[in-house]
Write a structure and sequence with these properties.
Order of helices and strands of chain A: HHHHHHHHHHHHHHH
CATH topology of chain A: ABC transporter involved in vitamin B12 uptake, BtuC
Low-confidence stretches of chain B: 1-19, 26-35
CATH topology of the largest domain in chain B: Rossmann fold
Mean pLDDT of chain B: 88
Largest sheet of chain A: none
Helix content of chain A: over 70%
CATH superfamily of chain A: ABC transporter involved in vitamin B12 uptake, BtuC
Low-confidence stretches of chain A: none
Shape of chain A: globular
CATH superfamily of the largest domain in chain B: Nitrogenase molybdenum iron protein domain
Structural class of chain A: mainly alpha
Largest sheet of chain B: 5 strands, parallel
Number of domains of chain A: 1
Number of helices of chain A: 15
Number of strands of chain B: 11
Number of strands of chain A: 0
CATH architecture of chain A: Orthogonal Bundle
Shape of chain B: globular
Distance between the termini of chain B: 96 Å
Order of helices and strands of chain B: HHHEHEHEHEHEHHEEHEHEHEHHEHH
Oligomer: heterodimer
CATH class of the largest domain in chain B: Alpha Beta
CATH architecture of the largest domain in chain B: 3-Layer(aba) Sandwich
Mean pLDDT of chain A: 91
Distance between the termini of chain A: 38 Å
Number of domains of chain B: 2
CATH class of chain A: Mainly Alpha
Number of helices of chain B: 16
Chain lengths: 335, 297
C-alpha cells in the first residue's frame, strides 16, 4: 500500500514544486511590485495599473511559461534518451542535439529568414536537432557502448558550437558576435509571448511523441532481443525518440538557446525515487525538469539581477560536477 | 674610409660652427612651430576625430581616416569619407603613411598610441564628449591643430547659434520625459552625450532620474513602469541581431504610440559633431509638437 502511494505522491509534490516556482518566477523582477498587486495586474488589472499589467503579461508571464516548458522538454528528453540508449550519460546537451539545434536557429535568425517567416526559426532548429539525434543514434548503433555515444556527442557539439560562433562572427551586425553566449549557454531574459506561441506547440508535440515511447522503454530495460520478443518494434521507438527529442529540444533551443545538463541531472535525481521503470520516470522527469529550470532562472535573477547571467551557467554549475560524479560511478560499475 | 675619417677629424674644428647649424635652424623655427606651422600629413584613427578633421582640414591635408568614417551607423560624413584613404589603425599601417600628426580618441588602443609616440609621431588625443558644447570646442581645437582656425571658427559659431536658438525656447521646467533604449536594453544615463542631447532639447532624461549613470542597462520592466513620454531608439543595422530584437518586444511596442518615438542614429549620438546638434533640433521640434498636442487635447 505504501509503495503504491509513493509514486502519485511524488508526482503531486513535483507538480506542486513546479507550480510554486512558476508563481515565484512571476513575482520576481526588478520592478518589485507586491505579490497581490502583481497577480491582480496579471488577471484583472485596475485602470491605473496598465504599466504593471504590461510587465506581468508581456515580460514575466512569457519568461515563466518558457522556464516551465523548456524545463519539461529537457527533463523528458533526457529521461527518454537515457532509457532508449540505456546510457546514464545521455542528455540533449551532451549528445549535441542542443548545439545542432542552436546552429539551425542561428542560421534562421541571422540570415533574416526568421524575420521573413517566423516559423523558420523553430523549423531550422528542429532540422538541426533531427540531424544530430539521427547521427548519434546511428553511431551508437546496436553495439555502441556508453563511451561511443558520448564521444559522438562531443564531436557533434564541438562542430555545432564552432559553426554557431562562425556564423555570428561573420554577421555584418556588430551585436551578433556578442550573442554567441546566448546561443551556447541559453537565457530566458526578455522573451515575449511571441516566443511562447512559436515554441510551445512544437514542444507539446514533442512531449506527446516522447510519452509514446514509455511502454517500449520499459521493455527495452530487458535488452533489445527480449523487447523484440515482447512485441516492441525498435524502429518505431527509435523514430518516436528521434522526432520527439528533436521537436521538444529544437523548439526549446530556438527560443531559449542551448541550456546544458538539465536533462542529465533531473532523471538521475528522480530515478531512485520512482524505481527502475522508465515509464514512471518520464512524467516525474518532465515535472522535475520544469521545476529545475524555473529554479535556475530564479537564481539567475536573484544572484546578479543586472548582469544578464546566462541560464546555462547556473545549470552547468550544478550539472558539470554531477556529470563527473556519474562518470566515476559508471567506471566503478563497469570495473 | 680611413682617409675620410682623418680628413673629418682634421677639419672638425674648422666646421665646428657648421655642426651647430641644425641647432640654430631648430631654434629659428621653434617659435614658428609654437605658432602652429600646420601639419601637412594628418592621419585620424577615431571616428570622432575623423569627422572633425574632415570638416576642418584643408584639401590634401588629411592623409587617411578610420574605416568607421564610412560606416553610416557611426559617421555622419560617409560620403565625404569616401574621398580619403582608409587606415586600419595598426601602428605599422599608420607609420607607413609618414604622418606629421595623428589624431586619436582617448580610447584608441593605448599600445598603438604609445608605439607611434616612441617612433616620434606626434599624437593628439580627443576626449569622449559628454556635453553638446563639446561640438564647438572640438571643432575649434581641430582648427588650431590643423592651422585652420578661420574655417573652424566659422563652423563653431554656426553650431553655437543653432544651440542658442534651441535654448531660447526651451521650457524652464522640462515636463516630457524621454528615455533612450539602445540594443541589449542599454540606455544613456547621466554623463553621456545622449543625456546632454536630451536635456538640450528641453526634455527630461528618465534614465538619469532613475539614478543610472553613463551607459547602463535599463531592465525592460523598469522601462515599462517608468512610462516615458518619448522613446528614443537607435538606427537599426540592416542585419538582424537579438540585441536589437528587444526594440521589437511587444511590451516596448505597446508602451508608446509611433508619434512618441524618435530614431537617433549612432552618427548623431556617438561623436559630438554638427550632426549631434541636428539631433537636438529634431528632438526639440518633436517636444514642441507633443506639448502642443497635449495642450490641444
Amino acid at each position: 500500500m505504501r509503495a503504491a502511494w509513493r509514486y502519485p505522491v511524488l508526482l503531486v509534490l513535483l507538480g506542486g514544486l513546479a507550480a510554486l516556482l512558476f508563481a515565484a518566477s512571476l513575482l520576481t523582477g526588478p520592478s518589485g511590485a507586491g505579490a497581490a498587486e502583481g497577480l491582480a495586474a496579471l488577471f484583472a488589472p485596475a485602470p491605473d495599473q496598465e504599466a504593471l499589467a504590461l510587465v506581468m503579461r508581456e515580460i514575466r508571464l512569457p519568461r515563466a511559461l518558457l522556464g516551465l516548458t523548456v524545463g519539461v522538454s529537457l527533463g523528458l528528453a533526457g529521461a527518454v534518451l537515457q532509457g532508449f540508449l540505456r546510457n546514464p550519460l545521455a542528455e540533449p546537451g551532451l549528445i549535441g542535439v542542443s548545439g545542432a539545434a542552436a546552429f539551425g536557429a542561428v542560421l534562421a535568425f541571422y540570415t533574416g529568414l526568421a524575420g521573413m517567416a517566423a516559423l523558420a526559426l523553430p523549423a531550422m532548429a528542429l532540422a538541426g536537432a533531427v540531424l544530430a539525434v539521427a547521427l548519434v543514434f546511428a553511431i551508437a548503433g546496436r553495439h555502441g557502448g556508453s563511451l561511443t555515444v558520448i564521444l559522438a556527442g562531443i564531436a557533434v557539439s564541438s562542430l555545432a558550437g564552432a559553426l554557431v560562433s562562425l556564423t555570428l562572427n561573420l554577421s555584418p551586425n556588430p551585436f551578433a558576435a556578442y550573442e554567441i553566449m546566448f546561443w551556447l549557454l541559453g537565457s530566458l531574459a526578455d522573451r515575449s509571448m511571441q516566443h511562447v506561441a512559436l515554441a510551445v506547440p512544437f514542444m507539446a508535440a514533442g512531449w506527446l511523441l516522447l510519452a509514446l515511447t514509455a511502454r517500449s522503454l520499459d521493455a527495452l530495460t530487458l535488452g533489445e532481443d527480449a523487447a523484440a520478443a515482447l512485441g516492441v518494434r525498435l524502429a518505431r521507438v527509435r523514430l518516436l525518440a528521434v522526432l520527439g527529442t528533436a521537436l521538444a529540444v529544437g523548439a526549446a533551443v530556438a527560443v531559449a538557446g542551448a541550456i546544458g545538463f538539465a536533462g542529465l541531472v533531473v532523471p538521475h535525481l528522480l530515478r531512485p525515487l520512482v524505481g527502475a521503470e522508465p515509464s514512471r520516470l518520464l512524467p516525474a522527469s518532465a515535472l522535475g525538469g520544469g521545476a529545475l529550470l524555473l529554479a535556475a532562472d530564479l537564481a539567475v535573477r536573484l544572484i546578479a539581477p543586472d548582469r544578464d547571467l546566462k541560464l546555462g551557467v547556473v545549470t552547468a554549475l550544478i550539472g558539470a560536477p554531477f556529470f563527473v560524479w556519474l562518470v566515476l560511478k559508471t567506471r566503478r560499475e563497469a570495473a | 674610409m680611413k682617409p675620410l675619417l682623418r680628413t673629418k677629424r682634421r677639419r672638425a674644428h674648422r666646421y665646428g660652427v657648421v655642426a651647430c647649424l641644425p641647432l640654430a635652424v631648430w631654434l629659428a623655427i621653434q617659435p614658428m612651430a609654437a605658432r602652429g606651422a600646420a601639419p601637412v600629413r594628418v592621419v585620424s584613427l577615431n571616428v570622432c576625430t575623423d569627422q572633425l578633421a574632415m570638416l576642418v582640414a584643408a584639401p590634401g591635408q588629411l592623409a587617411a581616416v578610420s574605416h568607421l568614417a564610412r560606416e553610416p551607423q557611426q559617421s555622419a560624413l560617409v560620403e565625404e569619407a569616401r574621398a580619403y584613404p582608409i587606415t586600419t589603425g595598426h601602428a605599422e599601417d599608420v607609420f607607413r603613411l609618414a604622418p606629421d600628426l595623428v589624431l586619436a580618441g582617448i580610447h584608441t588602443t593605448p599600445e598603438t598610441v604609445r608605439l607611434l609616440q616612441r617612433l616620434g609621431v606626434r599624437v593628439e588625443r580627443f576626449e569622449s564628449a559628454t556635453a553638446v558644447e563639446a561640438v564647438a570646442i572640438g571643432v575649434r581645437r581641430m582648427g588650431r591643430l590643423l592651422g585652420r582656425e578661420e574655417r573652424a571658427e566659422r563652423l563653431a559659431a554656426a553650431v553655437e547659434r543653432r544651440l542658442a536658438a534651441v535654448a531660447a525656447d526651451r521650457p524652464e521646467r522640462p515636463r516630457i520625459g524621454a528615455v533612450f533604449l539602445d540594443a541589449n536594453s542599454y540606455t544613456a544615463g547621466s554623463g553621456t552625450l545622449m543625456h546632454a542631447v536630451i536635456q538640450a532639447a528641453g526634455l527630461r532624461n528618465i534614465a538619469a532620474e532613475l539614478g543610472l549613470a553613463r551607459t547602463a542597462r535599463l531592465p525592460l520592466e523598469a522601462l515599462v513602469l517608468a512610462h516615458p513620454g518619448l522613446l528614443l531608439v537607435p538606427q537599426r543595422y540592416g542585419h538582424p541581431s537579438m540585441g536589437e530584437a528587444v526594440l521589437d518586444h511587444p511590451a516596448v511596442r505597446a508602451l508608446v504610440a509611433d508619434r512618441h518615438r524618435a530614431v537617433i542614429s549612432g552618427a548623431e549620438s556617438t561623436c559630438a559633431t554638427p550632426a549631434t546638434i541636428t539631433a537636438v533640433e529634431r528632438l526639440a521640434a518633436l517636444r514642441r509638437r507633443l506639448a502642443a498636442r497635449e495642450r490641444g487635447s
